[in-house]
Design brief:
Rna Polymerase Sigma Factor, Chain: A, 188 residues, Arc Repressor Mutant, subunit A, single chain
Length: 188
């Protein structure tokens, strides 16, 4: 959010009272971050738009519960993550597979080197099956523990670890194939 001063207690009070101009200011202040978070959890742009809209409905509905205006961005992102989980549970149950083994996964950096690589990685993340994508985002990007993910998704911590391992394998394979295709195109 570029202009944190725009999100003051006064602005929030006006939003809670239903002042549309204030709600518009808050929407524009939070919109880019919420949209980015929605896209990380969505499988496509249409789903991301639905999650984005559901998140903002929840944000405005629950705004009176926010106690620290300076924490609004993190609070709004948490609502967006919960909206994404709710969206997929409502539209199609998450397909999570119980693990045969319990792999140990360290946090790795799948950090892209450029904006182009970041866009490609975002697309690969969107291509993940729903369960993989939820766990990957919650662990790698939100920093939640497997225990926290398990509680949120109603799965076991070992299932969370397994889904993360499978997501990482899927992403590595996609990135390797993409790299091979780009290399082959250069040599033609």
């Amino acid at each position: 959010m570029k202009n944190k001063a725009a999100v003051s207690k006064s602005l929030l009070c006006k939003c809670i009272k239903g002042d549309q101009d204030s709600q518009k200011i808050l929407f524009h202040a939070l919109g880019p971050s919420i949209k980015f978070t929605a896209h990380r959890y969505a499988r496509n742009s249409a789903d991301a738009q639905d999650i984005f809209q559901e998140a903002f409905v929840a944000i405005f509905t629950n705004l009176s519960k926010l106690r620290k205006p300076e924490k609004i961005l993190g609070w709004a992102k948490q609502i967006t993550v919960r909206s994404a989980i709710h969206y997929y549970r409502q539209h199609q149950p998450l397909k999570l597979v119980e693990p045969i083994e319990s792999p140990t996964i360290e946090r790795e950096d799948l950090v892209p080197d450029s904006a182009r690589q970041a866009k490609e990685l975002m697309q690969f993340i969107q291509d993940l099956p729903d369960g993989y994508r939820m766990v990957f985002n919650m662990y790698q990007l939100e920093g939640l523990s497997h225990q926290e993910i398990a509680e949120i998704l109603n799965i076991s911590p070992s299932t969370s670890r397994s889904q993360l391992a499978k997501a990482k394998r899927f992403l590595r394979k996609k990135m390797e194939l993409h790299h091979l295709k780009k290399t082959a195109m250069r040599h033609e």
